[in-house]
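Example record for the data management plan.
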Amino acid sequence: MKNIMWNGSGLIPRRKALQIGGTGMFGLTLPRLMRAAERTEAKPGRAKSVIFLYQFGGPSHLDTFDPKPIAPAGVRSHYGVIDTSAPGIQICDQLPKTAQVMNDVTLIRTVHHTMKNHNPAAYYALTGHAPPLDDIRLRDSQDLFPAYGSVVDQLAPNINGMPTFVAFPHVMRDGEITPGQHASFLGKGHDPLLVTSDPNDRRFSLPELSLPSGLTAERLHDRREIQQLINRQVNQLEQSPAARGLDAYYEKTLGMLNSSKVRDAFNLAAEPQSVRDKYGRTTYGQSCLLARRLVESGVKFVNVYFSSNIGGRRNEGGWDTHGFDNTRMYPILSEYQLPMTDQTLPTLITDLKERGMFDDTLIVWMGEFGRTPRINDNISRDHWPQCYTALLAGGGAKRGFVYGTSDKQAAYPDKDPVQLDDLMATVFALMGIDPQTELHDKLNRPILVSAGRVVTGVMA
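Corresponding structural encoding:
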């Protein structure tokens, strides 16, 4: 149970956050509040589940889904472009399998914000709410906004015996733990079921759900045994404020111990070897397969983290490819991130379609920002939140569609810009959750689920 602990403390006091630059909590400035007040009618939700494939480190949009082949040298990718199954849509030529499923995908090429540091930008992407400051030292805090899946667990929790929100296989951090991975002020009862063991390990199991030796599921009906189990688990946790308020989480988790449905969903060994091979015998590949198994079993929101860190080296880590330790961006991309993406993403889409789950499952593929249009002296690209691409597939999103147009160098939105607030509102709307619903923070103040507008143009 120790993997559910979050030990960060607030970077700045609440009062100070409210004073800085006229911003309020969670970045809800007056203009955003006014925008939120303008209700946008959305179509009924079609997505029963969401698989959020989070690409920590920030993929280059110019080298993936928004190539600019006629841009000048020093801007255009070192890679070429290829046509796809969607007429008129071209992507990087290092993604040939992904090109074959682009007729099932919506690309939003005008996502933008102003956060240039990983943790603030990632928090924004994971919650849909801007942090009070773009500070590299931003720490996890109960004052910040909860993860998407925790909001779903608050507003539309599962009643089928399965967890509502599951996250794996890492806890992300860039120095400090990256905010936005848990329930924050909603309370630990809405934290994800966090699994940090490796799904690619042949010994993969769920220590969070494993029964102690000698304790059978039947004996859990004895309340004394349950209490003793809880006490032993509590003693393993730090005795800090972060460890308090776990009763609801324990109660929910212990209820799963007696569930064969939960155990079966996490049993990757039940998958045919051929299916496991298609996803790839990697931590990320098997995590994507596990995500499919979980939504097939009724989990509503699954976060799959590409890496625990921002990266920068070959064959490990995330998408932060500035050019460190005598490495260069393009070998890292072509040897690691792009092949991994080209194996997992189209396999997941195809698998969901073959199982009749694609229409009910929304895939979100994105990072915290894109990469600079101009290639730097290390033959790499730096952080660039001013314009980048997010990918949606299934779950009520249009197919073979591009929303928004970036300028000639993919530097800024040229048409139909989309803020992360808007993307968040759209995901909730596709799930049938009203983005204008009010939540309440620790001081019982009302806060909107989203201050963004639903991007109805991406909805089928």
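Summary line stored alongside the record: The radius of gyration is 21 Å.
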